[in-house]
Design goal:
By secondary structure, the chain is mainly alpha-helical. The chain contains five helices and two strands. It has a domain of 92 residues. It has a two-stranded antiparallel ribbon with strand order 1-2.
Length: 140
Amino acid sequence: MSSKIKKSSSSVSFSLSRWFRKISTAAPSTLIITVVGLSYAMFIFGGGLFTLISHPLPSAYYNGKFYFLYPSISSQFISDTVVSVILYALGFLGLFIIYQSTKSAYKPRQAYMMLVIGVAFLLLAYIFLEGAISFKASGG
C-alpha cells in the first residue's frame, strides 16, 4: 500500500511541477498585449484618469439646453470621456484599415476601397475631435 501512495504522490508532484512550469513560462499573445496597450492609451488620452479621480457628472440639462460636452476646457463630463475615447478608437480603426489595405495589393479594387474607408474613418475622427475641442474652447 505504501508503494502505491508513493507512486501517486510522486505523480501529483510531477503534475504540479509541470503545471507550475507551464504557467510560469506562458507568454501572452502579442495581439492581446497590443489591444490592451492601445485600450489603455485611448482611455488615458480620452480623459479617463480625470474621470476616475474627479467623479464628474454624466451630462447636464441647464436653462432648457442639454449639454453633452462640457462647455469649458477646464473640466469635463463623463460623456466627454466616452465621446473622445470612441473618436480615438475610430481614428485607430481607420489607421488599421489603411494598414490592412496594403496587404491586399494583389486585389487593387479591394485595396483601394479599404484605403478610402480607412482615410474616411481617420478624417471623421480628426474632424469631430477638432470640433469638440473648438466647441469647448469657445465656451459652448
